[in-house]
Specification:
Leucine-rich Repeat Variant, elongated, ARM-like, Family with sequence similarity 179, member A, TOG, ARM-type_fold
């Protein structure tokens, strides 16, 4: 039937997007007038027609790949417009907006620092989505954020949006990306901040290490272990009275390494 064909074609489109084949990159050719292309893209994103919105999102991807210098001048406006489409009820537009944010992170790198917190909040929200394709796209774009913006910005963005989220999938995704960020920054630097900031970080990591989700607990313990392996952590423990929960997590790591235990 037509409906079945549409479903089949839809999934085929999604699979194709997963792989980002060379045809996609061929379409991302330069604009002859990138400034005009940028104005047109922003106008398209304001349209109520979903196909026009798609055209605008693809134009932003073209600008990111071919004219990142032009995008840099209107980056906040572009980021807001694209982020606004992440919640579009049409999943094709939503998914394209999510992958466009990934393209912005890859092309504009640390220029995206100011935008990271709001974008991370929207992308993490999508990790609770029922569509596996949407989840995968959001996870990839969060990975692009972590790889390209200043690690301290990723740390704030992920912590504020994800650690206390009620959805376990969101917390798991947060913990996974946060462990990458902690490895980027390193225990030495993380433990060199103010006592309050270190205490808050440790409190958040212990919370993840005791999460209801097994994967989240693993990443939480992994991050606590990164801090424990640095000599500055002993000094932190002497200054701050370690909580009962922290002592439990540390004891479990010392006994069993990062192996899971439901008894935490």
């Amino acid at each position: 039937t037509v409906e079945r064909l549409a479903v089949a074609r839809g999934s085929e489109w999604e699979e194709e997007e997963e792989e980002l084949d060379p045809r996609t990159f061929k379409e991302l050719r330069p604009f002859s007038n990138p400034e005009l292309g940028l104005m047109d893209a922003l106008q398209c994103l304001e349209s109520s027609d979903w196909q026009t919105k798609e055209k605008g999102l693809l134009s932003v991807q073209r600008l990111a790949v071919c004219h990142s210098d032009v995008l840099a001048g209107r980056l906040h406006d572009v980021s807001l417009a694209v982020t606004g489409e992440v919640t579009n009820l049409r999943s094709k537009v939503s998914r394209l907006a999510i992958s466009t944010l990934g393209a912005l992170f890859r092309a504009l790198k640390k220029n995206m620092d100011q935008e990271a917190e709001e974008i991370a909040r929207c992308l993490l929200q999508k990790m609770g989505n029922t569509s596996e394709f949407i989840q995968r796209a959001a996870n990839r774009s969060l990975g692009a954020m972590v790889e390209n913006v200043t690690p301290a910005r990723s740390l704030v963005a992920l912590t504020s949006a994800g650690i206390y989220h009620r959805n376990p999938l969101v917390r798991k995704c947060t913990a996974e990306h946060l462990s990458t960020v902690l490895e980027q920054i390193g225990a030495e630097k993380l433990l060199s901040g103010t006592r309050d900031s270190t205490e808050m970080l440790v409190h958040n990591l212990v919370r993840l290490a005791q999460d209801s989700n097994q994967d989240t607990r693993f990443y939480g313990r992994k991050m606590v272990n990164i801090l424990m392996s640095n000599t500055k952590f002993d000094a932190f423990l002497k200054q701050s009275l370690p909580s009962h929960d922290l002592r439990k997590v540390m004891a479990a790591i010392k006994q069993r390494g990062l192996e899971d235990s439901d008894g935490l």
